[in-house]
Amino acid sequence: xxxIRLDSRLACVASLVKKCDCxxxxxxxxxxxxxxxxxxxxxxxxxxxxxxxxPLENAKETVKNYGLEDKIETVLSDGLDSVQSMKNCCVVLAxxxxxxxxxxxxxxxxxxxxxxxxxVQPMSHAEYVxxxxxxxxxxxxxxxxxxxxxxxxxxxxxxxTGKRTEYTEAKLYYGKLLENRDETTARYLRRQYDRLKxxxxxxGTDERYKDESLVLKAILDEFHEKGRNFDADR
Length: 234
Ligand SMILES: C[S@@+](CC[C@H](N)C(=O)[O-])C[C@H]1O[C@@H](n2cnc3c(N)ncnc32)[C@H](O)[C@@H]1O
Known about the structure:
Blueprint: H1 8-16, E1 20-26, H2 32-39, E2 43-50, H3 53-65, E3 72-76, E4 89-96, H4 98-106, E5 116-122, H5 126-135, E6 138-148, E7 151-160, H6 171-174, H7 183-203, H8 210-225
Helix pairs in contact: 1-2, 4-5, 7-8
The protein binds S-adenosylmethionine.
S-adenosylmethionine (SAM) is lined by residues 10, 26-29, 49-52, 55, 78-79, 94-96, 104.
């Protein structure tokens, strides 16, 4: 029997998934992740979901190639719309933008359940995802980064507790990552910092962007206060 290998981004996502009954991979495309998780007995079964027929065909092909048709069901679904609520499961949304991920999470009220793990890997706008999770009673339990060539990716795990998490605007950009001491995370954080600093410098003293400039200044100051020299640490 063939065994699947994941690239570093998906391996990082997979490493966050806790042992559970079922994984629901939303936006699965090729279904590599659910195949890996079932093969490695992280879950008993999985749903590989995608909103588009083409990617779902890819998913079916992969599931067949690995002989897992009895364990992985492919589902045509916009987000979680066509998936029944479940317990003891993990919902994964990887390789999509943070704004879309937040919208898809918001539409699935049944995720407000302590037995449901959420693992997301936003390709952009992680700050939207963190804001959604903090404000809606989800606790971010772990954050990790992975490098693949010049790209650095973020993945995070969350679970519903019902308690809102207090946050600053800066925390939306670093989350739990300041706890990590690895070089990939440092690279990721520096990029966040550089992106914000670039915007701050571009706005300059233009009165039209005064409010945004104040917010950015507070974020950049907090990044420095948290103990790393983001300007010089290269
Ligand atoms: C870049 S691929 C990521 C594939 C895989 N999750 C990964 O991380 O490698 C994004 C996939 O999300 C799917 N997608 C986009 N919007 C979606 C939605 N609203 N519901 C379900 N799938 C969606 C796309 O069709 C595409 O197959």
